Amino acid sequence: MKKIFLVLAMIGVLMLYVGCSSDDTESPTGQAAKAPSQCKDKTDNDGDGLTDWPDDPGCTNKNDKTETNPSLECDDGIDNDGDSAVDTSDTGCDSPTDDDETDCGDGVCEGLENVANCYDDCGECGNNIREGPEVCDGTSLAGENCITQGFDFGTLACVFDCTGFDTSGCEYNQTNQTNATCGNNFIEEDEVCDGTDLAGEDCVSQGYDEGDLACLADCTDFDAAECINWPANSCTDTDGNYNVWLQGTASGWYNGNAFNSTDYCVNQTNVMEYWCLGTIVQDTLASCNATNCTAGACGG
């Protein structure tokens, strides 16, 4: 009988040993084994180029089980914008801490992008629907027409890039020319000019040399009161022109600029002589030879 008990006891110990050494998910205490920490295994588990805590933003501490961060679109391991790229491999992610995988300007309206925040990807000029910054789009004219644009009748349209209205199909009544508003800085109907709108004209195009062209208060013509013409080119010399023996002053006008140049001694034996060649002033460094230069003339 003792031998039977001894055999049974040995069988029980053997079974216990086999059970404890088997590859199961329970610890010797019967509890489930803990998942290994990805934040201290020296491996870039989420492929964002950052490894473990504290470098990887997906790790809250070194015992964190995963390197991904579900609160950040660029570190959550999910293709949030549906472009088949995940996290930092997505061109919309600048870094793992970026919270938006979308990439405005890539030609794909995705994720959180919409017409308001990414017209380049989500808007479409020419679909007859005003979107984003569009002033109008095809037949969608925002309630505007030729009359609201200041004309009498006609057909208002939208320019090809949806940035403004095309009023080429709008007209004024031929017998009623009272719709122009003088003073609004916009030439209308038979106005010659209007405020700052000078139809491309300036003082020079009006025959003057310089100045500031304006428009008359009634918009019927230009106001050239501030336009001027330069004095004609001229030159006179008080010492009779080229004369190194007498100090003189050459004065006059050249292309709108006045000049007044007096002879002077450069040194003891040389004089700067100003003289006129027609209407153009000339300057010549002249030698007094054996004499001295005194008070802007030779012979002193």
Would you give an account of this structure?
By secondary structure, the protein is mainly β. It folds into 4 domains: 38-113, no CATH class; 124-179, no CATH class; 181-229, no CATH class; 234-298, no CATH class. Helix content is 8%, strand content 18%. It is built from 2 helices and 16 strands. The chain has helices at 2-21, 119-122; strands spanning 153-154, 157-158, 165-166, 170-171, 210-211, 214-215, 222-223, 227-228, 234-237, 249-254, 257-262, 264-265, 270-277, 280-287, 293-294, 297-298. The N and C termini lie far apart (157 Å).
Oligomer: single chain
Order of strands in the sheet with most strands: 9-10-11
Q: What's the β-strand tally?
A: 16
What's the helix count?
Answer: 2
Class of secondary structure makeup: mainly beta
Secondary-structure element order, N to C: HHEEEEEEEEEEEEEEEE
**Biggest β-sheet strands, sense, barrel:** 3 strands, antiparallel
**Share of β-strand residues:** 15-25%
- Spans of at least 5 consecutive residues with low confidence: 17-27
Morphology call: flat
The Rg value, from CA coordinates, equals 46 Å
How many domains make up the 3D coordinates?
Answer: 4
Mean pLDDT: 83
Helical content band:
under 10%
Task: Give the N-terminus to C-terminus distance in angstroms.
Answer: 157 Å
